[in-house]
Specification:
With 318 residues, this protein is mainly alpha-helical. It has helices spanning 2-25, 27-45, 63-66, 75-81, 86-104, 106-116, 121-132, 139-150, 155-162, 177-201, 206-214, 219-243, 251-257, 269-279, 283-311, and strands at 56-57, 68-69. The protein is globular.
Length: 318
């Protein structure tokens, strides 16, 4: 029995020594990762204690720890759900987030697959470069363009008139908001988002295409049986991560697209948090609303990953 205990105790020590040995051997990689880990820890993990503000009557003069606890501590959450505009705000958030995900997620995949089929390298590079440019345009510039194009004398109305439609002020009200918001998001992200898929497609063994040509496969069959399986794991991981941000709409763009005629129709949780927290100074209340949003996003990520793991364990995030 004594020999067995000694042998059992020696196993963890051996594993621990092996771990430190690996760290020493790969110290260059750990040193390379250290700045990134430090930045994430400082700016992402340390500020987590700030969620206590959601459960306190926060006063800047007293600080987070000096402020008194609310009674009951969930008071700010019930206040949000009792708000008469709560349902409309949540619906606006879901509508913007889901539609944005439905259109912005598959378009880079489709674009990468189509671009991969181009034969001329020079033409392919030109198309890639042009598609990347919108990503680097400021949100302020994008919204200025949308406001100009959507006016009665703008480009969008010129197109409408060409097809025999009447000119309308597309910036008035929220009728055309989703069309402009989602369309501009696709335009900005299709080229930039395709980079990771093109990188994955560059690893495809070219002999697979030669074999497919011999078997008489057409382009659609090559995409379906060679290209798509190559980028499917990458697409699955990105989908899981993007679902987690489906409720975190680009509030900066929404704020810049708002005006007196559509403000109430375009209010999402993110813009509501900005208005109540930054503009009105209700820090505890806005923190509670944003914490509610973060919890829902956390659940969405885990739920999407669980579904992915159920359908295809190899393509799940964990």
């Amino acid at each position: 029995m004594t020999g067995k205990k000694a042998k059992t105790a020696a196993v963890p020590a051996a594993n621990k020594q092996s771990l430190w040995t690996k760290i020493v051997r790969q110290r260059q990689l750990f040193l390379l990762a250290l700045p990134g880990v430090a930045l994430v820890f400082i700016f992402k993990y340390i500020p987590i204690y700030g969620i206590l503000i959601a459960f306190k009557d926060y006063r800047a003069s007293a600080g987070v720890w000096g402020s008194e606890w609310l009674d009951p501590f969930w008071q700010n959450f019930t206040r949000f759900f009792q708000n008469v505009n709560c349902g409309q705000i949540i619906w606006n958030t879901l509508k913007v987030g889901i539609l944005t995900l439905l259109f912005t997620f598959p378009t880079p995949i489709i674009f990468a697959l189509l671009l991969n089929e181009l034969k001329g390298n020079g033409y392919k590079r030109v198309v890639q470069t042009i598609s990347y440019i919108p990503h680097f345009i400021s949100v302020v510039v994008i919204c200025s363009m949308l406001n100009g194009f959507g006016s009665t004398t703008g480009l969008f109305n010129d197109i409408r008139e060409f097809f025999g439609l009447a000119r309308v002020d597309m910036n008035n009200g929220g009728t055309y908001f989703l069309l402009e918001f989602v369309g501009s998001a696709v335009w900005q992200g299709v080229g930039w988002g395709s980079i990771i898929y093109l990188a994955a497609l560059s690893n495809v063994d070219t002999t697979l295409y030669d074999v497919a040509n011999i078997d008489g496969a057409n382009r659609w069959q090559k995409i379906l049986n060679i290209a798509w399986p190559t980028i499917k794991p990458t697409a699955s991981i990105l989908l899981i991560m993007n679902v987690g941000t489906v409720l975190n709409s680009d509030y900066t763009k929404i704020l810049l697209m708002q005006n007196d005629t559509n403000r109430s129709q375009l209010d999402t949780i993110s813009t509501y948090v900005y208005q109540t927290g930054i503009v009105q100074g209700q820090f505890s209340y806005s923190t509670a609303v944003n914490l509610f949003l973060s919890v829902i996003c956390f659940i969405l990520v885990f739920g999407t990953n669980a579904i992915t793991r159920k359908l295809d364990p190899e393509n799940s995030l964990w």
